[in-house]
Amino acid sequence: MLTKTILAIETSCDETACSVIQVNLWGEPRANLKVRVLSSVVYSQILTHRKTQGVVPEVAAREHSVKIIPVIKKALLDAQTVLKCPKMSIKEFISKHIDYIAVTTNPGLFGSLLVGVETAKTLSYLYYKPIIPVNHIHGHLASVLSEKLTSPTGLSRKAQKELFPMLTLTVSGGHTNLVLSKKLGDYQIIGETLDDAAGEAFDKISKMLDLPYPGGVEVARMATEYIDKIKISELRSQNHNLELRFSFPRPMLNSKDFNFSFSGLKTAVYYQLRKMDNRCIKIMQRYICYEAQKAIVEVLVVKTMKAAEKYQVKTVGLAGGVASNVFLRKTLQDQISKIKYQKLRTVNCEPRTDFLVSPKNLCTDNATMIALSAGIDLSLRRNISSWDKVVASSN
Ligand code: KG4
Ligand code: ZN
């Protein structure tokens, strides 16, 4: 068995993150892999960007450059503690124990990516460690497999046979993708957003309602509060001249492809808000969040289920920041349970469609998912570069 240790760096947007993992590889050609996470440090810039209700790219890059070394240092010290190494300097630890440096190279904010990439290149050059460049989306996709990869048996070849073909919905602030994987490390985009990403829609609706950044969590919280306690009758009794029960469009719900579009939804919310005065918006904002969330989730779930059916996948995965949305997780889970049940009844065979969702701490940006993707690349013996071949790119 081969054991390799990876130091991974993620700075594509507004989280400065570093993780150290150990990967065990065995079998020919290294088809089985098992991961142990030694450390994971995430510094979130949320409080900085709350002031501007969104990420200002230059501010994000500047903050990455301040935090990157302390974050890497902490991840290395934590890993050293877990490994119970004899006392040694961080430099010695890198030389002796780190085999590869993984780093997010694309897509993302160019200035932010540059901080992580240049730091990784410097470490690679100084310590003679090869780089594994990682696509950020591949990181989100790998996060769905984290429980399998870190399980006592790891992601063996046999386990991979049961898992694939797999369809993963990746929903984040920058992306909304449906990705078909016929085998480990295979990524075929079968659908994507034509304009705003799902997370972006959440964030923009939140901003229109003057809720704090980042918007997804706030919209989800308000929607839950609506379900729990709002009384629409309160408003009705105040005699507002307003259509009370409105809903928002489900863009591209019935299109024949697996693409998405969320900019129309954002515009619909904007026009609805224009019809209302501030007091009315205040009273109705939980209902607006509830309806907007319902519209976004319905489109995501219906399209995912159609694609799962078409490609007869064995597993449906859910990843990205928006995957931490409880309503989305639950709705998708319910739909998958239904097809499982139908198959069981009609075909009278073992249900085949499983649901895998990233653990909550790996939904929003982190470096563990980047390390996991690099571990998959190692098992496939691909994507290993020297520092001078690695470049950051916003696409
Ligand atoms: O994956 P991520 O950390 O960054 C990108 O790669 O973009 O995702 C961040 C996005 C933001 O748009 C944020 O509002 C959204 O994920 N988000 C949520 C929730 N938590 C985070 N959206 C809906 N519901 C949530 N609970
Ligand atoms: Zn992300």
Automatic annotation (TrEMBL):
Against SUPFAM superfamilies, the record matches this protein to: Actin-like ATPase domain
Task: Quote the record's binding site residues for substrate.
Answer: 170-174, 203, 216, 325
Q: What is its EC number?
A: 2.3.1.234
Q: List, alphabetically, the InterPro entries matched.
A: ATPase_NBD, Gcp-like_dom, KAE1/TsaD, TsaD
Q: Name one GO biological process term.
A: tRNA threonylcarbamoyladenosine modification
**Compartment(s) of residence:** Cytoplasm
Cofactor stoichiometry and binding remark: Binds 1 Fe(2+) ion per subunit.
Q: Which GO terms describe its cellular component?
A: cytoplasm
Please state what the protein is called.
tRNA N6-adenosine threonylcarbamoyltransferase
**How far does the signal peptide extend, from start to end residue?**
none
Main function: Required for the formation of a threonylcarbamoyl group on adenosine at position 37 (t(6)A37) in tRNAs that read codons beginning with adenine. Is involved in the transfer of the threonylcarbamoyl moiety of threonylcarbamoyl-AMP (TC-AMP) to the N6 group of A37, together with TsaE and TsaB. TsaD likely plays a direct catalytic role in this reaction.
Q: Does the keyword Iron belong to this entry?
A: yes
Extract the GO molecular function terms from the UniProt entry. iron ion binding; tRNA N(6)-L-threonylcarbamoyladenine synthase activity
The record places domain Gcp-like at 37-371
Q: Where does the protein principally reside?
A: cytoplasm
**Where is Fe cation annotated to bind?**
136, 140, 365
Catalysed conversion reaction: L-threonylcarbamoyladenylate + adenosine(37) in tRNA = N(6)-L-threonylcarbamoyladenosine(37) in tRNA + AMP + H(+)
Indicate whether Transferase appears among the record's keywords: yes
UniProt cross-references to Gene3D superfamilies, sorted A to Z: 3.30.420.40
The lineage's top-level taxon is Bacteria
* Family indicated by similarity: Belongs to the KAE1 / TsaD family.
